[in-house]
Structures are given as structure tokens and as C-alpha cells.
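User: I'm putting together notes for a lab meeting next week and I want to include a structural view of one of the chains we've been expressing. I don't have a solved structure, so I'd like a prediction I can at least talk through. The sequence is below, exactly as it appears in our construct file.
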Amino acid sequence: SSSSMLSIASMPRQLPSSSSSMRSSLQQEQETDEQSTTTDSTSAMQQLQQNNELQQAFSSPELLDPSAILDATIGASVNVNVGEVAGVGGVALTEEVEVPSSAFDTLPRDEGLNNSNTTPIKSTLSPPSIYKILSYTLPAIGVWLCSPVLSMIDTASVGLLSGTAQQAALNPAVSVTDYGALVVAFMYTAMTNLIAAAQQHDRESGSNNNNNNEPRTTTTLITGLKLSALVGSLFAIILSLSAKPLITTLIGNESLDPTVLSAALRYVRIRSLGMPAALIIGTAQSACLGMQDVKSPLYVLAAAAGINLLGDVVLVRNSSAWLGGAAGAAWATVLSQYGALFMFWRWLTTEPKKEDKGDVSLDGFVGDGNGGASNVVDVTKSIMELTGDSKEGHSRRKQFRKFLTSSKLSKKMRATPSSSPSFLDKPKTKAAPPKSRGFLSNGKLTLSSFFKLSNLDIPTAKEFLPFVIPVTTTSIGRISGYIAMSHVASSTLGTYDMAAHQIIFSIFCCLTPIVDALSQVAQSFVPGVFEHKEKSEERALALRKTIMNFRKVGV
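Assistant: Thanks for the context. Below is the predicted structure for the 555-residue chain, given as C-alpha cells.
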């Protein structure tokens, strides 16, 4: 009992040393567990960050190769190159990373690389460069030369073939017809702006992939052509009825030679017959400029000038008062306008012919490019027939040997010894036709529907109204100085002086369309930027850049 008491008595002295050792071991284990937990959490956070960065990179199809993403999805090692992936969270990924399948659990399943319904990346606004503005302005000058060129052809033809008196009659007559036509020039300005805005609307709505699916542009173009026919007809009636008071007011001198006065009246009345065609042509040309197509109006201008010159040569020398002299020049101009209208109508409503895309091979393997069942070729069977000894391929082998030994093949190989066909060679493709070519084809516009005012789109027609007063006022202000010069020349100068003034003024009018062409090109580009659906800083910067580029070209 004494020994047990001694052991019991000694236990309190032994417990402190045992508890301290146990306490230190527990603290070491706890610190070890905390360090491992911290290390695990740090590695987990790093792994999660890498996974997020990889997910962000893989969600952009243009950043990585699809094969690399395919390898990653099946758990393979992906070597991400810094040169291929730029700006992924600001981290340079240069090592091989083992990507687990769980890393792709949060990827959007409906926006994968193989999904055909993936929406395209939104394109940014790009203001037209100086080079692009110049490339459109120079051809557009030809569009504005249409009326001055026709008048100059009349002036030259009448002066050479009909005499000075008939040429002097053109001085007041051309002023009335050409300057009077500027009163309805609001149709041209409105058409260019509205077509450019409609193009931007169709582009943003994703409906301008081809010419057959641009609803707003098509409606605006058809409505503008109908309005131009209506406005041109009304203007022709007013011009014909007011020809005598306008000529008399412009001349302001009753002592003028009656031959000159009567020739001027005939010229104005005949030219009034062509005003509907002239207005439709001008509106169609403005629509082409709104589509940024400057080639089509040049074709029409060249055709109209050729017809006018031919008509002047035939008619001006005629001795008849209503068929020769100034009247003959007026008839030639009217015929050229309606001829150009017919060609423009065909240009807009006739779809261009598609080239044959078929591939020609041996023994009737001709495809039409349509992918029909009759064009499917069994390549394996063809090779076996060419290389084997079957009866079915006898004719084919004979034709192939004949082709290899033909003189045409040898001449072609000698002519081009260094050029061998290669699948890597880019095929030569012809330039696409102008955008306006066949724009109203497939029954969009017919003669019967064109002359029906019942199907006129009234809301679209009302969009032309805001252009009437400002553009007309500006046009009257511009032509007032020219009318004053014609009035002075007609009222104070003699017949010979009037003829000389007409020659000089015709040359002057052919040198002034440069500014008008630049203005028209600006109306083609600016609405496309201004009508952008998102009003942002990018849009403001694009507008500012566009205006600055046009100012530089103008200077």
C-alpha cells in the first residue's frame, strides 16, 4: 500500500512532462495540417484561375487552333503558345497544362466551335479613308457631267452644222432647261441619303447578304423611281407651258432677232418632253452612288453621250424648223435620255448571267456546278478502269492514251514549261458585277407595277419631303448668279456675242462638277456612319474622322 501511495503521489509530478510533450506534438500536427491546407487551397485557386483563363481563351474561336481545343476536351496536354494567345487575363501561358474535363463544364454548349448558328463578331465602324473617298469622287464627277456634256454636244453641233443664230438661241434656252431642272434636284440628294441609310439598316439587320434580300433598300429605290417619274412629268408640263414667259423674261429685250427667239422656244418645249426620263436617270444614278456603285452611272453616261452625238450629226443639219438646228439638237438630247433610261432599266431589272462553273474531265464527266445527282463521279471506279484491264475501262484507257499523246497537250506544255498546275494556286476569279446590276430583278419591278400609283409606299415617299425646301432653296441660290449672267448676255449683247457666251459657258459648266461630286460622295458615306444604331463614342469618333477626311480631299 505504501508503494502504491508512492506511485500515486509521484503521478502529479510525471503528468506535466507528459502533457507538455503531447501538447507540442499536437501543435506540430496542427501546423502541418494548416500548411497542407494552405498549400492545397493555393494550388486549388491557381488551378481554378488557370481553368478560368483557359475557358476564356477557348470561348474565342479565333484565338486557338480547333485541334488544340479538341485535345484539351479529351484530357490531353495542350501547349499554349504566347504568340498564339495574347492578352488572356494578362498571364503568359508557356507551359504544358493538364486540362481536366471539369474545366469545360461551364463552357456554353450552344456557342461551341462546331455550332453553325454562332453569331458573327460585330464589326466596328470604319470611316472612309482619303484614298477611298478619292476613288469614289473621281468617277462620280462623270455622273455630274451628264447634263453639261449633253448641252456642250448640242452647242458644238449646232455651231458647226447650223449657224451662229441657232447657236445663239441655245444661250437662253439651255439656261431655262438646265437651271430649271435643278429645282427638282432634291430628288437626287434625297435618293442618295435614303439609299445609304437603307443600306446601313439592312446591313445591321443582317438582310443584305445578297441583292435579293434587302427589303428596305429595294422599297426605297422603287419608291424613289416612281416619285421621280411623277415629279418629272409635272415639271415637264410646267416647263412647256411657261417656256415663252421664261424666255422673254430672261432675254428682256424685244429687239432680239425673232429667229433666235423662236428657235429658243422650240428648244425648250422639245427638251421638256425628256424631263421625266432625265429625272428618273438622275434618281437612279443617285441611288447607285448611295450603294457606293460609281461604275454603273458611267456606263449610262457614255451611252447617252454617244446617242446624243449621233442624233446631233443626223438631225442638226436638217433644214426643217422643228427637226433641224437647235430643235434637232433638242430632239437628239431627248432621244439620248430615253435611250439611257431604257438601258438603265435593263441594267437594274436584268440579273447578270452566271458563268458556267462546271468541271470538264474525260469521257463526259461534265458538271454544271449545281451538285445534282447526275454529276456524282465514282473516283475509285474511274481509277480502276484506267489502271486495270477490265473490258468496261477499255474505251476509257484508249481515250486517256490518246489525250496524253495529243499535239495540243504537248504544245501547251512546251509553251508553259515552268508553270505546273497545283492545288495551292489560287483560282483566277473575275471581278464581281456592280452592286446595282440586277438589283430589281426577279419581278421586283415591272412596267405594269411601275405605272401603278396604288402600290406606292406612302411612308417611304414621305421621307423625301424633308429634302424639298432646303435643297431647292440652295439650288435656287446657286443658279441665280448663272441666270443673271445669261440675262445680261441675252439682253445687252448681240447675236454673235450670245453665241460666244454660250460656248464659254458650256466649257465652264463642264469644269464645275468636281465639288458637286464630292458632295454626292459625302452623302453616300456619312449616312452609313450616322445611322448606326448604337450611339457611342466609337460612332462619334468615326463621324469626326469621316468629316476630317472629306475636308482634306476638298482642300
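A couple of points you could mention at the meeting. The chain is about 65% helix and 0% strand. The two ends are 123 Å apart (CA to CA).

User: Perfect, that's what I needed.
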